[in-house]
Amino acid sequence: MTPFVRGTVSLHDLYEKYNDRVQFLSIYIREAHPVDGWWLGKGLFGKMLDRFASKAATDVYDPQTMAERRQVARQCSTTLSYGIRTYVDEMNDAVNQAYAAWPTRLYLVGLDARIVYGGGLGPYDFKPAKLDAAIKSYLNQIGAR
Amino acid sequence: MTNTIKNFKEAKRWQKRHNAHAPQIGELAPDFELRDVEGNHPVRLSNFQGQKPVALVFGSFT
Question: Pick from B29, B35, B60: which is nearest to A76 by CB?
Answer without folding.
Answer: B60
